[in-house]
Amino acid sequence: MLDLRKIGAYISKLRKDQDLTQLELADQLNVSHQAVSKWERGESLPDIGTLPQFARLFGKTVDDILNAGDNAENREHRHLGTIVKEIADNRPIQVAEMVNTGEVKMEALVEVAPFVKASALHKVTERLDSSVLKLDVIMRLAPFLGKDTLDELVCQAEEGEIAWDAITGLAPFVSSDILSRLVDRLIDGSLELHHLVEIAPFLGREHVDRLVQKAEEGSLSWHSVQGLVPFISRETLSRLVDRVADGTADGDQIVSLAPFLDRESLTKLIGGVEAEHLSPDVLASLAPFVDQGTLSRMVTNLLNKAK
Question: Which residues contact 48 (CB under 8 A, 6 or more apart)?
């Protein structure tokens, strides 16, 4: 990965060597002095249009800047400057060809992606061969691509082997339809609920319910059930609670589920809790969700426990 702090220190050195203030450098590059300050603190980089201009100003190459002045033989990142220049000159086809032929490694494109506009990155990725655009690479490019572009790339790449880490990495960025397709392809009878907890926020409720049905033959835990609560239907939640509530539930666990359970399921769950697991705080938290009769019994149990 690019070391932004190291690059920032190098930018600061170049500026000071020329006896320029941040404001003077900003004026020459037509950016704000706040932008220059962020570069030097390692909080950001010059954008792809500014980098070549910055390098020329100090008689350096873009590769010099992105490698923080390291000698050529010691450089970790090679050919980044070539990619930056071609994209800055609006020549995405050339960038794609270099990656496809192996002249430039895909890793270099991944490194440059954070400061390339999504529209420019799209023009490059749409011309990349499927042999170089695997799901693990798409996952790393995902934060910098538009959703439609990302969906197209995933569709092209999903013929290969799919792993859960790829799905969880892509989940926040692809459409729910594409995510559902990936999940459906991976399900082979070994789906576990903790996997669903990671991707549930990005799937439709009906799909999560269906996946839970496939997964619930395996082991269940309170942690998994609580993680899925906001994303499944009350019917599915009630079924999970019936399976996992074997007398091991405590008051705090019930409180966390109460807003999502129907009254019948909640009453049944409370009925399986030993009196010693109830406390005044638990009663107060559950009061808005139970009927008066259940609340009265809970208070009676609590009072009897105190005697």
Answer: 84, 87, 88, 112, 115, 116, 117, 120
Q: Where are the domains of the chain?
A: 4-69, 71-158, 161-230, 233-306
Q: Which amino acid is at 4?
A: L
pTM, whole model, 2 decimals? 0.67
- Helix ranges (H only) for 222-276 are 222-228, 234-244, 251-257, 263-271
| pLDDT, tens only, 72-95 | 776 666 778 889 889 988 999 999
DSSP 257: H
CB of 10 closer than 8 Å to CB of 78: no
Which residue shows structure tokens 């999970």? 240
Place 217 in a pLDDT band, splitting at 50, 70 and 90: low
Length of the chain: 307
| Closest by Cα among 239, 164, 165, 225 to 197 | 225
Residues 235-269 have pLDDT tens digits of: 888 877 776 665 555 667 778 878 888 887 777 77
Q: For residue range 129-150, list pLDDT tens digits in order.
A: 988 888 888 889 999 998 888 8
Task: Please give the C-alpha separations between residue 90 and each of 54, 60, 140, 210, in angstroms, as whole numbers.
Answer: 18, 21, 23, 46
Q: What percent of the chain has pLDDT over 70?
A: 84
| Residue 4, C-beta contacts closer than 8 angstroms, at least 6 positions apart | 42, 43, 44, 45
How far apart CA 283 and CA 279 sit, in angstroms, is: 6
Superfamily of domain 4-69, CATH level 4:
lambda repressor-like DNA-binding domains (1.10.260.40)
DSSP string, 92-116: HHHHHHHHHHTSS-HHHHHHHGGGS
